[in-house]
Amino acid sequence: QVQLVESGGGLVQPGGSLRLSCVASGFTFSQYVFYWYRQSPGKEREWVARISGSGAFKEYADSVKGRFTISRDNAKNTVFLQMSSLKPEDTAVYYCNGQDYWGQGTQVTVSS
């Protein structure tokens, strides 16, 4: 069965950094585009970033462009989201998606 497991969230001060990971199993990882989304209470789920199967093509939401970097390691069935210069408005539960499956999410809280 398909399983996506996010990790790496936590509490960080404004201006700090975190790296999120999403480990996938149950399908051919390298054949699928992967996405990161985030959701805050009372808000719609927001697309953050996506990466092609090879990792050659990446795209970001305007709100995170220049601060976040998506990458993947197909040998480890893992996609990453490196987050830098974090702002309070980045606070959300972050989810990965591949083959239209979702992980359970990992909480990121940016606060002093």
Average predicted confidence as pLDDT: 97
Number of strands: 11
Rg, Å, rounded: 13 Å
* Unreliably modeled segments: none
Helix/strand-derived category reads mainly beta
Report the span from N to C terminus. Answer: 40 Å
State the shape: globular
Give the biggest beta sheet: 7 strands, mixed
Helix content percent band: under 10%
SSE arrangement, N to C: EEEEEEEEEEE
Beta strand %? over 45%
Number of helices: 0
List keywords for this structure.
single chain; seven-stranded mixed β-sheet; four-stranded antiparallel β-sheet; mainly beta; 112 residues
Secondary structure layout:
Layout: E1 3-7, E2 10-12, E3 18-25, E4 34-39, E5 46-51, E6 58-60, E7 68-73, E8 78-83, E9 92-98, E10 101-102, E11 106-110
Parallel strand pairs: 2-11
Antiparallel strand pairs: 1-3, 3-8, 4-5, 4-9, 5-6, 7-8, 9-10, 9-11
